[in-house]
Amino acid sequence: RGSSARSEAKSGRTDLIFLIRFRHCCLLRNQRCLLAYLYDRLLRIRALRWEYGSVLPNAIQFHMSAEEVEWFNRYKKSLATYMRSVGGEEGLDLTQDIKPPKSLYIEVRCLRDYGEFEIDDGTTILLKKNSQHFLPRWKCEQLIRQGVLEHILS
Q: What is the pLDDT of residues 139-153, one digit of tens each?
């Protein structure tokens, strides 16, 4: 109906101009709504990188389209490149200490068997289910977000 209405309006039927304008405004509105929805999804996917780290749980990745997974991977690589470029030789991990720490060491409980875990001084700790440890906060944050460790609050 849209192309026939345009040709009739061009030939002199001015009553169809309102219909064409109304249809055009509806299309523009729908386009704005879709773009706002897609932008909101991208913001949520970006937040997932900060919350879960560089590997998303399968339950979340299952609900993402192939394009969204590709965007997540490109964002992850871009963030990693930036973090390596700042902070000297080792880079600076911006995903650590999202909230300012109250202390440098925290007490954690292992929620599942993880295996060996090395801290800065070269000490290796065996993380077994229900074991408790007093570890540097920045080394534990990623494992806490992944659900391997749980912060024990005094």
A: 888 888 888 899 888
